[in-house]
Design brief:
The protein has about 375 residues and is of the alpha+beta class. It folds into three domains: about 1-145, 2-Layer Sandwich (N Utilization Substance Protein A, Chain:P, domain 4), CATH 3.30.1480.10; about 150-215, Nucleic acid-binding proteins (OB fold (Dihydrolipoamide Acetyltransferase, E2P)); about 220-380, GMP Synthetase, Chain A, domain 3. The chain has helices at about 1-30, 35-55, 95-100, 120-150, 220-230, 230-235, 265-270, 275-280, 295-305, 330-335, 340-350, 355-360, and strands at about 60-65, 75-80, 90-95, 110-115, 155-165, 165-170, 175-180, 195-205, 210-215, 235-245, 250-255, 285-290, 310-315, 320-325, 350-355, 370-375, 380. Helix 5 (about 220-230) packs antiparallel against helix 8 (about 275-280). The N and C termini lie far apart (about 90 Å). The model is unreliable at about 5-15 (pLDDT under 50).
Length: about 375
Amino acid sequence: MIKRSRGKAKKEQALNYGADFMDAFRELAQEKGIAPEVLFEAIEAALITAYRRNFGGAAQNVRVSLDRTTGEYHVYAIKTVVEEVENPITDISLSDAQAIKPDYEVGDVFELEVTPANFGRVAAQTAKQVVVQRIREAERGNIFDEYSERESDIITGTVERVENRNVYIDLGKTEAVLTPTEQIEGETYEYGDRIKAYILEVRRTSKGPQIAVSRTHPGLLKRLFEREVPEIQDGIVEIKSVAREPGMRSKIAVYSRDEDVDPVGACVGHKGLRVQAVVDEIRNEKVDIVKWNADSARYIANALSPAKVVSVAVNEAEKISRVVVPDYQLSLAIGKEGQNARLAAKLTGWKIDIKSESQAADEEIDESMDLVEVTGEESFSAEGDAE
């Protein structure tokens, strides 16, 4: 009686330990954001590996059953019921199978429990390595899924290090890489700096997800305005187009679906607070906010802001325009090294030829173009304080 009581107590202790073990795995799975079943399947796979490696079962087809509640495990050798056994490792005779269960037939799958008595210690050591690896893979998969869904969005992180001009940004669960070509010219990055960047691409690699980000992409400017302007978030104001020369100057074209809401004023904000928050984030890059217009001539005139436009001749088929400005506005319309005209062309998607009034007076208008006398609509230019 004493021996039986001790045996029973020992078994109950083992079952309690196994249950605690499974509870711990569930907590770990929840902590790592992994489905518990993924871990349980990893344990079963690890036990199969351990059995084959340590108990001469390499040639055997085995299955491991792990009780999800108690943590008890059993190893079963899987054999095929045959008339005549050719390979005793994979086959069992019909007569032997029917001696155990009479309704077996040829071709059925027969399972024989082969759990070794001292399997626990070896299995635990092997399982630990496999489970840790599976957790790592699952975590990487979760991170990849999370950030791949955020491509073309903004992330905020902390500069972790700079190596070979590449800036590595700590995002908490993983890191992003800002390559030299995606950095704003003249911008410096120091350890601990908090910066925002635009997610270009998320790639799956053997070392985990690789997140490529940009500080120069036009999408960064668009997303920053979306965060700062509630009217954009609500769908009342829309950013129709963005053109950037990173670190120097940008233009955005905005449109309002509500006649009572000024899209330019919404993006500027009270006392310019909204646009200034964007400018501060892109290190004082000058930003022109102009009204989008369905009329191509008016849109082109707006895009050349802050220059005043007298007339615009357009060829809709070829997307070519001829813009006339007052003589004293010519240099402003073209901009330093052609920057204003270049950005306006990028913003509108039109080729823009700019002439002063005196130059235009000496030239004939191309008959293929429709001439429109225009007055530019409201626009706004913002730039940060010089450092």
